[in-house]
Each structure stands twice: as structure tokens, then as C-alpha cells.
Amino acid sequence: MEEGFFTRVYQIVERIPPGKVATYGQVAFLAGSPRAARAVGEAMRRCPYFEVPCHRVLNRRGELSPAPAFGGPGVQQGRLEAEGVAVGPDNRVDLTQFQWDGK
């Protein structure tokens, strides 16, 4: 399941447009495995493809990933802000404003 699931996850994440974010659970649902949010996180950590915008995938509270996931503190935040996504002082994104609709 892992290889096929990860491939579906990467294909979905590639569709998230700049300026929008998705949650691990949302990506899992769209990949056909609604209870696999943690596996989506693992897919993001292990992603070998630079073109997959893993920085656009957040947890269900809109919180950014721990610093090591993107090479150091502030990297994910910098990428999101460069795309117009506002990150609050609590390292959260307002999902009501920036969450991708999945279409």
C-alpha cells in the first residue's frame, strides 16, 4: 500500500495551488484513505521530489511542521509567506482563509 498511497498523496499535494494549504487529514481523504493522516505526514517527510509543495500541508489546527522537516526554523513559514499565506505568531495558518477546497 505504501508506494501506491504515497504516489497518490504526492499527486494530490501537487494540485494545491500557491497561496493555499491543506491538512494531512484532507489529503488522506482525497487519497481515498480518510484515516491515514499520519501516513500523509510520513509521505511528506520522505518525499523525494522537490517539485511537490510539501510545505503547503499542515496539521488539522493549521500548525506548521517542526523545524527539521524543512531544513530549519522558519523555512516552511518563509515559503508559505512568499506565496501570500499569512502565518500567525503562534505558527498557525487560518484555515478558514487559506485552506484549499480540494478542487
Q: Globular, elongated, flat, extended or rod-shaped: what is the shape?
A: globular
Strand percentage: under 5%
CATH class type? Mainly Alpha
In the CATH hierarchy, what is the superfamily? Winged helix-like DNA-binding domain superfamily/Winged helix DNA-binding domain
Low-confidence stretches: none
Largest sheet: 2 strands, parallel
Short description:
This protein is mainly α.
Summarize the structure in words.
It catalyses: a 6-O-methyl-2'-deoxyguanosine in DNA + L-cysteinyl-[protein] = S-methyl-L-cysteinyl-[protein] + a 2'-deoxyguanosine in DNA; a 4-O-methyl-thymidine in DNA + L-cysteinyl-[protein] = a thymidine in DNA + S-methyl-L-cysteinyl-[protein]. This protein starts with a helix and ends in a 5-residue tail after the last helix. The chain has helices at residues 2-14, 24-30, 37-45, 75-82, 95-98; strands at 22-23, 57-58. Helices cover 40% and strands 4% of the residues. The protein is globular. The chain is mostly helical. The mean pLDDT is 93. Helix 2 (24-30) packs across helix 3.
Compile the SSE list and pairings:
Blueprint: H1 2-14, E1 22-23, H2 24-30, H3 37-45, E2 57-58, H4 75-82, H5 95-98
Parallel strand pairs: 1-2
How would you describe this structure in keywords?
103 residues; globular; Arc Repressor Mutant, subunit A; two-stranded parallel sheet; mainly alpha; DNA damage
